[in-house]
Amino acid sequence: MLFDKYNGLIARFPDECDHLFGQDVDGRSDLWFSIDANGHPSLLFETTKGEEQPDLKLKYVEVEFARRCEIAMEGGRSQVGTFTVVSFKDDDADLVRIFLRLLEEAFLAEKGPHSSQEIRSKIITLAEIFSRLETSVKDVIGLWGELHVIRRSHDPIKVARAWCLAKSAQFDFLGESHVLEVKATTKARRLHRFSMEQVRPSSGLNSYICSVLLAELPSGMTVGELMDEVLELIEDVDDRSRLFHQCLKKGGKDIYASALPLSVFPDGASLAVFRASTIPVPQVDESAPIYNVRFDADLSDAVALSREDAEHVLSL
After folding, report:
1. How far apart are CA 272 and CA 212, in angstroms?
2. Which domain does 267 fall in, by range?
3. pTM (predicted TM-score)
4. Which one of 39, 54, 223, 270 has the fewest beta carbons within 10 angstroms of its own beta carbon?
5. Which InterPro entries does the record match to this protein (predicted)?
């Protein structure tokens, strides 16, 4: 929503405007969205007396408390008031899109006034998330596969809640009776890299591997588009916010910047599920001081579960 407003304001920014240009958010008089002459977006919260806080200046974000502002609007009108101003100091459209989505989840999902202390606390958290984002095309492809597993589920909310938070987690999904690791590839064969722990868990967990073959197609979806589609399936505010933050951890700054359109093959041919115990592994002497064993395996000719059994595993 805010990104659409951002693009609209950029297109209509008045010539020689030397202050903020914006509009109210959803008809609210206490919440405004604007841009400046540099294309930097701001979200402005009407401030009540006695809510002053020290200003914040972080890597990408600045917050000014109790600032007297004039917001120019279309038609020559303007709005003058005292606001807490949250500004994003970058005009890269893909980075702006990520941050505006973070603001939506933090402040717009539930309507109501926000105190200066609450704004300060949430912005520090969001800025920390944003500053730690990484960039890797492998992350994008892997994330696409994991999001596809959530999207195709009959109960996407349940599967999303089973999605492990940490990017470095040993498994992608933790179900009630088993764990699931998703491997996605754009190669023609099911070539994947595994850790020994994923296929031979030392804890004795019942482990499965979901292999997803992806094709690069003009009619496919980018990982950002797929993420937005999955987020629309999640109605609970906390679940949706958690899912978005997790996507950022796993997909990094490429979440919207990546223009790679991917698609699965028709008739369910892209997806295959295997018992981890059936995947061949390198032989390592248990008494040898060898740890963190990783290896590549081709599952193209391995025996996969039946479609019925695979659906049961994927339902988590």
Report:
1. 7
2. 137-314
3. 0.86
4. 54
5. DUF4420
